[in-house]
Amino acid sequence: MEQVLGSEWKITPAGGATGNSFFATRDGQELFLKRNSSPFLAVLSAEGIVPKLIWTKRMENGDVITAQHRLVGRELKPSDMKSSNVAELLQKIHHSKELLNMLKRLGKQPLTPNKILDEIQQAVAFEKIKQPEIIQAVELLETQLPDVQCKDQVVCHCDVNHNNWLLTDTNQLFLIDWDGAMIADPAIDIGILLYWYIEEADWKDWLSSYGLELNDQLLKRIYWYVLLQAITSYLLYYAKNNVQEMHNWIEHINVIMSKMNKN
């Protein structure tokens, strides 16, 4: 990174799983740098969904470095997630034709419920998982598959936890960390956000801010994707042999299935 900015800049890792993100500071200036970010970043910046992209530089080795302003602000707290500005920004993302067209140009194919379920079934079979709750959960997903088909195919962030929302000191809201973005049913994002952050009694009001009416079909899609995410989390910790987290997710799965069977 020093060869991009010069030795007068102080470069420090910004964390993250890939190790490709950095902070750069000099004389009060602060930048957020990323190596080999997707061209998708430029569209996200133009749409005002992530902090403004300042420049992009291609290195001799083929790496592409992007720079954005490092903004003063904070991550959202779990209690902030029920606010209408979160619903409005997510609605803007899901309805952006520019974002959708860019992901399509990058070769992303729509992720249908059938394709997702097939991947889960293959993973459970490959790992030879016999846990009764997991088998039951996968069977429930399959049973409800005809009820969760959706014509809406939008850009989904797929990791809308509160740590990925940035609120600046000037009250600008951004959704960052787009590495897992997909084209899919918007219920993937909506469901995870509602289930983990908002009381079910308040779902109708939150969805009203988003621009949707809560009905039986949407409710089924929400719980279907919440259960899917819970199974995926269980599989993640199964692969790590983390028995405590596996147990925690089994408890979550039981609660989710109970709610699905009531609706």
TrEMBL record:
InterPro entries: Aminoglycoside_PTrfase (IPR002575), CcrZ_PhaseVar_Mediator (IPR052077), Kinase-like_dom_sf (IPR011009)
Segments traversing the membrane: 222-239
Domain Aminoglycoside phosphotransferase, residue spans: 14-208
Keyword vocabulary terms for this entry: Membrane, Transmembrane, Transmembrane helix
Coiled coil ranges: none
UniProt key word Ligase: no
UniProt protein name: Thiamine kinase-like enzyme
